[in-house]
Amino acid sequence: MDSNAGAALGVAVAYVRVSDSLRDVQRDGNRVAAAGGSPKNSSSGPVPDYEMSLEVTCEICLAPWWSLQPDFQYIFHPGGATAQRDAVVLALRTRLLF
What is d(CA 8, CA 71) in angstroms, rounded to the nearest whole number? Predict the structure, then answer.
């Protein structure tokens, strides 16, 4: 960021859809596990669908040599499954120029 600028704002959205093939594999595994299949050959678990994240960040120039950048991310369906609660990620980056 230019040291003469006061602040820069960034907003991003990311969306990832889990393929139908992978979803079918998990459904099949769930059916095998429900029928008493071997745990080594199948695993029962949620069928993944999508993961989406929303990110907001702002770089603030406090001095020509120092800036701070707080970052907030909200993640819907972490790992692509509803079994996980939505997640919040908070970060703070600082930059010092010498």
Answer: 12
β-bridge pairing 50-63 and 66-76: antiparallel
Q: 20 or 2: whose pLDDT is higher?
A: 20
Answer yes or no: are the C-beta atoms of 48 and 19 closer than 8 Å: no
Topology classification of domain 7-18+48-96: Outer membrane efflux proteins (OEP) (2.20.200)
pTM score of the predicted model: 0.72
Q: Give the H/E segment covering residue 32.
A: helix 20-34
| pLDDT tens-digit map of 48-76 | 889 999 999 999 999 999 999 999 999 99
- Residue type, position 44, single letter: S
Domain extent listing, the chain:
7-18+48-96
Tokens of 24: 């079918």
